[in-house]
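FAQ: What does the model actually see?

It sees only this:
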Amino acid sequence: MESEKGKIDRRTFLKTSGMGGAALVKSFTDSGYTLEQAKLKAVWKDTRIAAACVSMYSLNILKDNVAAAADGRQLSGREIEMMRRLAENTCDHYCTGCMKCASVMGSEGRIPDVMRYMMYYNGYGEKDEARRQFMALPETVRNNLALRDYSSVEPACPHKIEIGRAMKEAVRILG
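And it is asked to produce this:
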């Protein structure tokens, strides 16, 4: 992670869309923000990010986004640190798409794709979209996901994701 004050790293940017860390989430609400507002403000504060495409899958999130844009406040250094901690505490649930697993297993395993579908399902609540994309994978890939040995791939994951378990869960939930 970057240590420069006011910056969030790529993992924080990608992971803040998922849920987790109830105590950390409470720290944002105690500061007067919803989690959705804090996510946006963290992204806006990072000067490395020039644009963001934000999903607004409910009217509540739309209202939060408008309020975050209109209130003129910025996250404090403490709140940026809380966002980092939230990302750290949930990073073992989400794949950042670093492709280190593909360098070990090969791209035919489709691990980053399947992990992204699981993020749609678990993190964003987009269950139908997750299933639709999973079912669009070649049948041979879907049939082999739960059967493959991922023990050589798991040590390569910088977030310590239990890839074998995650693939079995994906087949169970999305298949």
